[in-house]
Amino acid sequence: QTMRDFLRELPKCEHHVHLEGTLEPDLLFPLAKRNNVSLPADFPSSAEALHERYNRFADLADFLHFYYIGTNVLLLEQDFFDLAWAYFQRAAAQGLRHAEMFFDPQSHTTRGVALDAVVGGFRRACERAETELGVTSKLIMCLLRHLPVPECLATVQSAQPFFESGTVQGLGLDSAERPFPPELFTECYEQARRFQPELRLTAHAGEEGPASYVTTALDLLGAQRIDHGVRCVEDAALVARLASSDTLLTVCPLSNVRLQVVQHVRELPLQKLLDAGVPFSLNSDDPAYFGGYVLDNYVAVQQAFGWSRQTWARVAGAAVRGSWCDDKRKTELL
Ligand code: ES4
Ligand code: ZN
């Protein structure tokens, strides 16, 4: 059995995948045509040319420019279903068993797409994934932190029925990290929690932003996990705190390389986190843009760190334990 086969068969959970970031060029162009959406004049004109451009993002902002153009081709409930279902099939073939998935309502509602169409399509794909693939999942709504706070607050208000019904089980914060510190969104997180006291909370922090953003996400937003968070290592007290509070970091290795957070996977502080007892999971972030799904991220880390099967069992186990599924499902995955 090769290491890749071993890693494929390891029951994997992912906690950091943006559904809009699973839009493969092979679906982007047909959807643009089907929905009569025109792409910018200087946009690469073939799936091959687009893949090539995705190979040289300068930073997070450069990536987000392409990511938001991509979201514009999504209009109908069926589009959101098709997108998520394609992701589930690809990820399940790589040994994905449980996914906690982000979506960005504001990139759709600002174009006149109803929140019902977005959530409805995604939810239908989640149900099919559970029935046909045995993959369980949760939806996490993210706020776009580059938009004005009052708009984010209105988005939280509009999601009240989905929080109350449990269709959306988490709240997150994404888009350009700097100069938009977590504390700007304290009121948004408080309001969402008033709608649903059980709501799970997370936030992107410590990707391009400093370690202090991780601290304020924990202290002021009440984040229960941190997305990326790799820059926590710049603050030793924070590392100790993450370990003692058992706070999961959702690390995205291929993303960090493509967005030049690090130049190579081996520069990520994964061994340091393991040794310090900080739990983390390995995730694909925006797999259609960053060159790999969940197993590809595991394989890239194996190539960089050369861990034993025992260490890999520990890493995959930490991802199960850090999941927001119930204990019964965790037991099935461990
Ligand atoms: C994202 Cl990698 C990353 N960071 C922040 N926001 C995002 N949205 C989609 N991918
Ligand atoms: Zn992300």
From TrEMBL:
All copies of domain Adenosine deaminase, residue ranges: 11-334
Recorded catalytic activity of this chain's protein: adenine + H2O + H(+) = hypoxanthine + NH4(+)
Co-factor binding details: Binds 1 zinc ion per subunit.
EC identifiers of the protein: 3.5.4.2
GO biological process: adenine catabolic process; hypoxanthine salvage; nucleotide metabolic process; purine ribonucleoside monophosphate biosynthetic process
Keywords: Cytoplasm, Hydrolase, Metal-binding, Nucleotide metabolism, Nucleus, Zinc
Predominant localisation class: cytoplasm
Cofactor: Zn(2+)
Annotated GO CC locations: cytosol; nucleus
Site, Important for catalytic activity: residue positions: H228
Binding residue positions for substrate: D286
Family: Belongs to the metallo-dependent hydrolases superfamily. Adenosine and AMP deaminases family. Adenine deaminase type 2 subfamily.
Known function: Catalyzes the hydrolytic deamination of adenine to hypoxanthine. Plays an important role in the purine salvage pathway and in nitrogen catabolism.
Record-given protein name: Adenine deaminase
Source organism (scientific name): Lachancea mirantina
Source species taxonomy: Eukaryota, Fungi, Dikarya, Ascomycota, Saccharomycotina
Gene that encodes it: AAH1
Residues of the full protein shown: 117 to 450 of 465
